[in-house]
Amino acid sequence: MPIIDPHRVQLSPNQKAKRINADPDAYGTFAEIGAGQETVRHFFRAGGASQTIAKAMSAYDKDFSNAIYGAEPGNRFVCESRLRNMIRHEYGLIVERLDRKDHPTKRFFSFANTVTTSTFNQPHSGHGWLGVRFQTAPERPTNDVVIHVRLHDPDINLQQECIGVLGVNLLYACLFHHDDPQLMMTTLYDNVSRHVVEIDMIQMTGPDFSDVDNRLLSLQLVKRGYTDAVIFGPDGQNLQATEVLYKKNILAIRGSFRPVTKVNIDMIMNGYNMFIKEQRVDRQQLQVLFEITLNNLQADSGDVDEKDFIDRADILCSLGQTVLISNYQEYFKLVEYFSRYTKARMGLIMGIDNLVKVFDEKYYRSLNGGMLEAFGILFTRDLKIYVYPSRPNKEAELVTLDNMPIHPRVRPLYDYLRNNKRMVDIDSFDPQVLHIFSKSVLQMIREGKPGWEILVPPYVDNMIKDNKLFGYRPAKAAKVELKN
Prior knowledge:
- This protein is an alpha/beta fold.
- The protein has two domains: 13-212, CinA-like (Maf protein); 244-433, Rossmann fold.
- It is built from 17 helices and 14 strands.
- The chain has helices at 13-22, 40-46, 62-69, 80-97, 156-176, 181-187, 214-223, 241-245, 262-275, 294-297, 306-318, 331-338, 352-358, 370-379, 411-419, 438-447, 460-467, and strands spanning 26-33, 53-57, 107-116, 127-134, 143-151, 197-205, 229-232, 238-239, 249-254, 286-293, 322-326, 346-351, 383-388, 423-425.
- Helix 1 packs across helix 2 and helix 12 runs parallel beside helix 14.
- The longest helix has 21 residues, at 156-176.
């Protein structure tokens, strides 16, 4: 559930709208597509809206909407590009039509949303984009805050009401809490339930957010329980799952990546080369994801170390990777999440140790159908698992699907999946890197022990040293004894 401060007084939507209307310098426009004029009506009802609202409109007809904001690729209307075009266009009209000489103290804003509610055939398909472009002082450059939401209430009227409340919360946060991004995120859920609406993407940009790392905002969404998974790209910008995964082939690898090692790169490269040879895989429609679970981000204290998270994110982004942060400790939940967006073939790359856990019944005791329920979710999808072998040291036996330890009770299920090629060994691995483990490399980095540099990919060692990532300590110089 979202974090709630018991000492903070939550204002109602009406109270927030009244305070905005009472601010003599907050002045702007509202443009809403779909789900009705749900946000702006709070301001009209609160009274005094004439000194806040320059214009309120709904470009509900698709042809009118395209004529105003331009057509989007694929003629889509509920997408990030449409939302950003709306706030850009409407803010441009404010600047164009209102003379600063007549409004010297005004802080202009443009609020917009584009939302689709659920349908009879798809009762939980409602989602939308909300955004604000705003000034914090006259003549100051503008900032943008954009969020994406998924609507879970089956009642369309309640979905519309929720969008209205959320819109008020967003505008209020931008106008009065812009100096505290954490508080901004907290107030988004004022008078709104996580069971009703899920915020799965947030982006803050502009001079007043120059110190904000949007990847940390993504992490906060998962940590606070606002959503279960977030994605950010190689450029560090937060991404919405539909934009990244829709109808794509997905190949994911889970790990701590603390730090990325040569064994991680060997796993993804060889798994990728096998995956692209599959008949139902289109290389032009393929998305590779490096996944880190919230559990993997937690320090010994049980809390999430944000500095440690950014260290990992910096390295993965520098390697050109797209990163998924999730609260899906079980793989079947991860696959179920992917299945919201695609029916194309998916692939998971995992080591032997993780696969052993997948076949451990104790992880499924909370499910009514137990292990079979979880595997029904996993393998009723078009999914293939690529298994990387294990050899902890040079003297140990190589562990593959042939000799992986499996409890006799689940052996028939294991054999069935193996015989049907739903799980396959990664054969073309590099035997010279099998002994590399992130925990050991991390310990060497922190203790200043030499030799860890050859265990990580090229340039990663320089990044760690230059930026002092993961508590890096320089290796101690060996003492030289001088003899007379």
